[in-house]
Amino acid sequence: MAESGAVWRNWSGLQQSAPARWWRPGSEEELVALLQGSTGEVRVTGAGHSFSALCQTSENLVALDQLSGLVSHDAGRLTATAMAGTPLHALGPLLWPLGQGLINQGDIDAQSLAGACGTSTHGTGLGLASFSAQVRGLRLVTPGGEVIDADSETHPDILQAGATSLGALGIVTRITLQNRARYQLAEREYLLPLSEVLSNFEQLARDNRHAEFWAFFRTDKALVKVLNESTAPPTAKPRFNLPVDKVLDITSRIAHGVAGADAWMQRLLTALHSEVRRVGRSHEIFPSPRASRFNEMEYELPLARGLECVEEVMATVKRSSLRTLFPLEYRTVAADDVWLSPFYGRDSASISIHQHVCADHRPLFDLVEPIFWKYGGRPHWGKLHSQDAARLAELYPRWDDAARLRERLDPQGRMLNDHLRKLLLLP
């Protein structure tokens, strides 16, 4: 199915374009025919949850939402193959009856499976890697319409490049994930002084399956969240939930509209926070609501330098006059061997900063980004950053291998928009 005249927007509304043709293929066969019967630039979109301009195009946009659902599973190996457009929030409930669960995931589950893998989306936990690292096989439709199945034995180079592909090799239609036996998680979320969190986080990360924190720029408090496996009965849903996300949205607009309001709004939010404890199926506990829209920058740094970087970012923002209500987020991610994964070859600290959509994100991001560079950071492909191919090539040991494969699969460069040409093509 194809349509024209519609405007595509990402989740935050920052990125938008008006593609000449917007395809929503209902099958792989239809997708092959569309690619073979067309010319010009092709980009692909899942749920639109990337903050960068990966999906922008004025020519052909492919939406994967109709290529959704479970294809097959292997009970012995604990793997499952799903269509690439399957939303993460649908994947957990599909895996649970099979006795499987995702090894890890982040606190947003709106993304498509292909989008999560294609940008190395991740959660947190020492020894726990990103979605890309769990890819055991994939089906790729090249820009010329060739269908290629890749795994560790057949086309292993396409597997290693395609597990974090940015949609630059073609269109991934199926993904086989390594999972684990299904499990429950117990969550605890609580406030601590930031100085205490920074002093003790390494131990906290070792003591818990998942650990992360959010540090507020205008207070001395940090919000800590830990998750651990549990056999306790699931907790009942509370009769009343404070609409935290709506409160965050309203207070963000006030904080950016009234001088000095960001500091006392942060103090108010932390004062109102009460400790959270809940137990449930893993796919129910991982995600948190995200109705308050924002733009985000994230870099992945060598783990040994992560907390040092946090301290410098916090001090730099505090010295500035910039306003932001959203906190800095800190997570840990294990190393992998996926060619263009930002976690390639090194255990990493993941540091994110955010700005509400009512404010211009650029002053804050421009202030902080050089600090990430100083610590050897690699940008998250789906988040905002200003890197280009000349800098990125120095950060990825398998950069040239990925470039050669991309040129072989897409010699005409159909899968490249302006953003990807800046990221992937050396001058």
Description:
The protein has helices at residues 28-36, 88-95, 113-118, 156-162, 194-207, 244-257, 261-272, 282-285, 306-319, 362-374, 389-395, 399-409, 418-424; strands at residues 2-3, 8-9, 16-17, 21-23, 42-45, 60-63, 70-74, 79-83, 100-101, 135-141, 147-151, 171-178, 180-181, 184-193, 210-215, 221-229, 276-281, 294-302, 328-333, 348-356, 378-379. The protein has 13 helices and 21 strands. The chain is 30% helix and 25% strand. The strands form five sheets. It has an eight-stranded antiparallel beta sheet. A five-stranded antiparallel beta sheet has the order 7-8-12-10-11. The protein has a domain at 184-379: FAD-linked oxidases, C-terminal domain (Vanillyl-alcohol Oxidase, Chain A, domain 3, 3-Layer(aba) Sandwich). With 427 residues, the protein is an alpha+beta fold.
> Low-confidence runs (pLDDT<50, min 5 residues)?
none
Q: What is the overall shape?
A: globular
Describe the largest sheet.
Answer: 8 strands, antiparallel
| CATH architecture label of the domain at 184-379 | 3-Layer(aba) Sandwich
N- and C-termini, Cα separation: 38 Å
Q: Taking strands numbered 1, 2, ... along the chain, how are they ordered across the largest sheet? A: 17-14-16-15-19-20-18-21
Q: How much of the polypeptide forms β-strand, as a percent range? A: 25-35%
The CATH class of the domain at 184-379 turns out to be: Alpha Beta
Pfam families: ALO, FAD_binding_4
InterPro entries: ALO_C, FAD-bd_PCMH, FAD-bd_PCMH-like_sf, FAD-bd_PCMH_sub1, FAD-bd_PCMH_sub2, FAD_lactone_oxidase-like, Oxid_FAD_bind_N, Vanillyl_alc_oxidase_C-sub2
GO molecular function, one term: FAD binding
Protein name: FAD-binding PCMH-type domain-containing protein
